[in-house]
Amino acid sequence: MAKNLRIESTDSKAERDLAALQPYTTVSVTVSTARQPIRRPDGGTEAAEPDVQNISQVVPGRELMESMAEYGRRVEEFKKQQPNFNALLAQSTEEIPLSARDQILRERRGPEIAFFLSLAPEVCSALRKKDAVRAAETIEDINDDLDYGNIPTSKIGYSVWKEERNREKLGKRAVNDRRKRKWKTSPSSLLQRK
Fold this sequence. Notes:
Elements lengths: L4 E4 L4 H8 L3 E10 L4 E2 L5 E2 L4 E10 L1 H20 L3 H7 L6 H9 L3 H10 L1 H9 L2 H17 L9 H27 L2 H7 L1
């Protein structure tokens, strides 16, 4: 152990616990090291000022780290369905806002969203134009949209994909509506009404 080394923390336990729940937190360390005493010309000794270093860094919070680990597991599962996942993401040159990236990490279909964004560069550019909250909401909407449709296999526009997904969605609704109407008019349902 180093002699004359003192590490101080100004954060209280409550502040540290609250910071762990934030997406990003700043970790700061102040290191004070004592210096050798200074000899004066008259033979006396004078204490030297300590060497103080302040080091701080922004790091992901605990919740975001857990989301990253879970996202990694989902990516490995998704790679089994899409073996070219890494190649397509590596080709993508589009940047997205940090809030959108964090939302992708949290979403259950995060790898599918990332794959979709690699095929739809105009969506990435639209995300960059939005503020942080709207960009995260858009990722949530894309997640909901993916629940109803399939991911395109080649580069297409988001509007084209959404129109196709809506057609599929309407087709499924029509089938469900027919089933409901058939159930309402079946002979057994007529007997139950009397």
